[in-house]
Amino acid sequence: MAKPRTHFVCKNCGYISPRYLGRCPNCGKWNTFREEAVEKPTHSLFGNNTGGTTQRVNFSSLRSKPTLIGHVKSHGAPRFKTKSEEFNRVLGGGIVPGSLILLGGDPGIGKSTLLMQISGQLSDSGKKVLYVSGEESANQLKIRANRLSISDSPNLYIYPETDMDAIRSAINEMQPDVVIIDSVQTVQEPSIQSAIGSVSQVRGVTSDLMGTAKTNGITIFLVGHVTKGGSIAGPKTLEHMVDTVLFFEGDLHHSYRILRSVKNRFGSTNELGVFEMRYQGLKEVKNPSKIFLEERLRNATGSAIVVAMEGTRPILVEIQALVTPSIFGYAQRTASGLSRNRVSILMAVLEKRCGLMLQNQDAYLKAAGGITLNEPAIDLAMAVSIASSYRNISTNPEECYIGEIGLTGEIRRVTRIEQRVTEAQKLGFKRVLIPKHNLEGWQPPEGIDVIGVTTLNQALKIALGR
């Protein structure tokens, strides 16, 4: 009897090697190779060889020919919405039928709670939903549904199962509008001879579900586990195969959660939704700016407010800085929710262009509320907060700062300045510092004083008085 062929697969990136390697040459990780049986080739596009028969999909009626782009008729993707405006916003306006959506996040962050709530909302609106759980029993799912006050809808079905053949049969029999797989790492494709959760299994299951979604117009949500590094477990091709990748973020010690899109073929990748975790489930936060600012101390040093854009939504966030003399030979630079490299660059600019002696100072910066900011427009607020803490001078609590800082100390223009200033005016701010070049071509709203600045020195003199 011939020995079954095997190879070694990196569980982090999916790299295949004929022999074991201690370090993956593709992703550089150590001790990530696992031995797996070589998969048998399949002759179908979206089917699998089960029971000795090949399940083929007939695409003869779907064949297309090369077409001039001018002859192609464009139309927007049809969508159906949930009752959650935050969820709809992140997806680009609603759920696209036939799309494959991957939701990742840390354990216990609320992924299953979110999808159970969405299942209840969709079933109440008349959509047939199949909730497949490979981690919980039917009784556990019912307990969660009762806690979330989800009604006994005739359109919501729960199915505790991990066998892909059984799941495929249930989908073919029910023909639901939406299918939720919780989670993809717990589902097993019987035709693939490897352990559950392995690279081959995850890739095979996702490929099968992608075919089901595209050929039947069924929207499928996949829950994905994450690694210690925060990336979704399994091969990187998993994120390339799906239409949308969502991350559910937040601190387990805080009640607020952020749903962020990092890939979306049907909408923007910069949108985010904010939720508050309660015993009864996740509650939408309609005005996240107010939440992020409600615990701010007035007349505190090292505090500055910035209007950041997350997709199409302006959000006011407090940036806090603590600058103290270093007791070691090398000054520390620590950032939470902000780029550490950006902090180092801004401190170098403050020292070179503004005369602040920061080379012997430890700096700790944080974006309050657990949100992560990464756009250039937050530079001015970060610099003001650092200078405020260093000089021990408080900023005006009714003032906010918007602008990108160049290496020569200039304040550079940013995008969507009208929306940013309008949001600050709505929340009661009386003055805002923006790049001078952003004053061209629009009229600031009444009730807020808009000051254009060209250099960082000029901005610090206005913000801190000297």
From TrEMBL:
NCBIfam families: sms. SMART domains: AAA. This is DNA repair protein RadA. The lineage of its organism: Bacteria, Bacillati, Bacillota, Bacilli, Lactobacillales. InterPro entries: AAA+_ATPase, DNA_repair_RadA, P-loop_NTPase, RecA_ATP-bd, Ribosomal_Su5_D2-typ_SF, Ribsml_uS5_D2-typ_fold_subgr, Rubredoxin_2. The keyword Hydrolase applies. A motif (RadA KNRFG motif) lies at residues 263-267. Residues 76-226 form the RecA family profile domain. The middle region has homology to RecA with ATPase motifs including the RadA KNRFG motif, while the C-terminus is homologous to Lon protease. Belongs to the RecA family. RadA subfamily. PANTHER family: DNA REPAIR PROTEIN RADA, DNA REPAIR PROTEIN RADA-LIKE PROTEIN. Residues 362-466 are annotated as: Lon-protease-like. GO terms for cellular component: cytosol. Keywords: ATP-binding, DNA damage, DNA repair, DNA-binding, Hydrolase, Metal-binding, Nucleotide-binding, Stress response, Zinc, Zinc-finger. DNA-dependent ATPase involved in processing of recombination intermediates, plays a role in repairing DNA breaks. Stimulates the branch migration of RecA-mediated strand transfer reactions, allowing the 3' invading strand to extend heteroduplex DNA faster. Binds ssDNA in the presence of ADP but not other nucleotides, has ATPase activity that is stimulated by ssDNA and various branched DNA structures, but inhibited by SSB. Does not have RecA's homology-searching function. CDD domains: RadA_SMS_N. GO terms for biological process: recombinational repair. It comes from the Bacteria. It comes from Acetilactobacillus jinshanensis. ATP binds at G105, D106, P107, G108, I109, G110, K111, S112. One of its GO terms (molecular function) is damaged DNA binding.
